[in-house]
Structures are given as structure tokens and as C-alpha cells.
């Protein structure tokens, strides 16, 4: 059965890219699945049956990082998202000269130590956004051999797939969005990595599970809310890699993390987006 979508066009000021990215992150928490910047406007898509007017209007009225000048929406028919990505959105990307992320429709690809096939459709995580590339760059420095890994807010599961290719023993990938779960399963199959278990839900699924490495590329508010559960699920001397926030958000995350025996080992930044590496004491 075809599913119709709502296309929202939101005009913001100042129309900085990082503000559009932040708004898209919050919209993603409401079930929006795909985004495009067009000049001073952010175009966002959501399945009609997933749309909550009250939650959307609350975000529009309370978004404190910029002024929402206006927004409008229209209903559209089911979109061929693969075709849209192929034509407009996704080019191969090489990170640190050893991790190549590409889609199944790309040809004439260069060699790379880690080559990951991602057909993202509407899921977040192709390596192009600063937060994903920062996470991948930090993962490339880690030893995953024989490790148990959690990819929290997995999107396309690109991080889980890289962990598998780097030798992780057991991996769980979790996302609250059913579409991301579906897309993750497809991408995992395309990369021939069978030891990744995909689950739909939130941090409540972590109870009873323990990991050597936790990867969480979400957003500041969710990270602050769930960091206790990450800490409780992390083995001693385990690594927590987090991104999805700005450099100025680091102190708040460090303050909350310190309550649960997590300490910052390092951080990196790219265009004011940050990734933090924490260790469980």
C-alpha cells in the first residue's frame, strides 16, 4: 500500500546551515524522515500517518535557536526515495583515506580498506554530515576486535556496519523509527555482515545488555536523557562515542556523564559539530 507524505517548507532566520541541521534533528525526533535545504528554507518530509500537529506546532513555537519566519505544507504521493537519492543527494565519500561509503548505484569506485554500501532512502547516515564523519573518523582509531558494540540511534546502521568490518564480535543497532530499522536490515545484508541485531525502540531496550563500545550519534537532549542508561550498560574501561551536538554543548554532557563514572578522554570538532570520546571508570 502506498503511503502519502506531507512536505513541509519552513523558512528560518538566520538561515545558517548548522541551524537548519539542528532543526532537522529535532524534526527527526518527531518522525520526519528526509530533509533538504533550499536557500533560506528547510524542506522536510513525514509520513502523513506519523504526523502530530500538536508536537510540530510546539516545536515551531519553542525553537530557540532561530526565528521561524513561516511554514507551509502540502500532501504528496509516495516518493521513489532511491531515485531521489541517486539523482540529488548522495555522492561517494572517503573518510581518512581508508573508509569509503557509497551506494549500490555508484560505479568506478576507488579502493579502500573499508568499503561500506549504504542505500539510505530516508535514513540519516551517509557520512556526509559532520556528525557521521566525525564518528567514523574516531571509530577508525579504535580496536573493535572481539568487542561487543551498541549503535544507538542507528539510522542507516553505517556505524554498526563499520564496527562489524573492523572485527566487532556482537553488535546491536537500535532506532526508534521503523523505517530506519527496515533500511538498516537492508544495508546490513548488502554488506554481508550477519552478526548485527537490529531492534526498534529507545534506550529502554538496553537493560540487561552490556557493551565494550557504545556509539550514539543522536542529539544533545536525548543524550542527556539517556546517558545514565549508556553508562550502566557500558563495561568497565568501555568507550562511549557521542556526537549530534555542538562544541558548546560539551560541558553539559560532561557534567551529566560525570555522575555515572564517565570521563572525557578526547573530543574533535568540525564546523562547530563535535564528537566526544568518554571512558567508563
CATH class of the largest domain: Alpha Beta
Low-confidence stretches: none
Shape: globular
Strand order of the largest sheet: 10-9-8-11-12-14-13
C-alpha termini separation: 50 Å
DSSP helical segment count: 8
CATH topology of the largest domain: Rossmann fold
* Tally of strands: 14
How would you sum up this structure, described in words?
The structure is a single chain. With 281 residues, this protein is α/β, with parallel strands linked by helices. The chain folds into two domains: 5-79, 2-Layer Sandwich (Alpha-Beta Plaits); 140-280, Rossmann fold. The chain contains eight helices and 14 strands. The strands form three sheets. Strands 10-9-8-11-12-14-13 form a seven-stranded mixed sheet, with helices on both faces. Strands 2-3-1-4 form a four-stranded antiparallel sheet, with helices on one face. A three-stranded mixed sheet has the order 5-6-7, with helices on one face. Helix 5 (158-165) links the parallel strand 8 (148-152) and strand 9 (170-175). Helix 7 runs parallel beside helix 8. The protein is globular, with a radius of gyration of 18 Å. It starts with a strand and ends with a strand.
Amino acid at each position: 500500500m502506498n503511503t502519502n507524505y506531507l512536505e513541509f517548507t519552513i523558512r528560518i532566520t538566520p538561515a545558517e546551515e548548522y541551524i537548519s541541521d539542528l532543526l532537522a534533528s529535532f524534526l527527526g525526533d518527531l518522525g520526519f524522515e528526509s530533509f533538504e535545504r533550499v536557500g533560506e528554507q528547510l524542506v522536510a518530509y513525514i509520513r502523513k500517518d506519523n504526523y502530530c500537529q500538536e508536537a510540530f506546532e510546539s516545536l515551531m513555537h519553542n525553537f530557540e535557536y532561530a526565528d521561524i519566519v513561516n511554514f507551509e505544507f502540502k500532501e504528496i504521493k509516495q516518493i521513489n526515495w532511491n531515485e531521489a537519492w541517486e539523482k540529488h543527494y548522495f555522492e561517494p565519500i572517503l573518510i581518512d583515506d581508508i573508509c569509503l561509503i557509497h551506494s549500490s548505484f555508484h560505479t568506478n569506485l576507488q579502493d579502500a580498506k573499508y568499503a561500506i554500501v549504504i542505500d539510505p532512502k530516508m535514513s540519516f547516515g551517509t557520512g556526509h554530515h559532520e556528525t557521521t564523519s566525525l564518528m567514523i573518523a574516531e571509530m577508525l582509531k579504535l580496536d573493535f576486535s572481539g568487542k561487543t558494540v551498541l549503535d544507538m540511534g542507528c539510522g542507516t546502521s553505517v556505524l554498526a556496519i563499520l564496527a562489524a568490518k573492523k572485527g566487532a564480535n556482537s553488535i546491536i543497532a537500535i532506532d526508534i523509527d521503523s523505517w530506519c530499522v527496515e533500511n538498516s536490515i537492508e544495508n546490513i545484508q548488502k554488506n554481508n555482515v550477519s552478526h548485527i541485531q537490529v531492534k526498534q525502540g529507545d534506550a529502554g531496550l538496553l537493560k540487561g545488555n552490556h557493551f565494550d563500545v557504545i556509539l550514539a550519534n543522536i542529539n544533545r537532549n536525548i543524550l542527556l536523557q539517556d546517558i545514565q542508561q549508556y553508562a550502566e550498560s557500558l563495561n568497565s574501561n568501555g568507550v562511549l562515542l557521542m556526537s549530534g551536538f555542538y562544541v558548546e554543548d560539551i560541558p553539559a554532557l560532561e557534567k551529566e556523564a560525570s555522575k555515572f563514572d564517565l570521563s572525557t578522554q578526547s573530543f574533535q570538532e568540525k564546523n562547530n559539530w563535535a564528537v566526544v570520546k568518554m571512558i567508563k571508570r
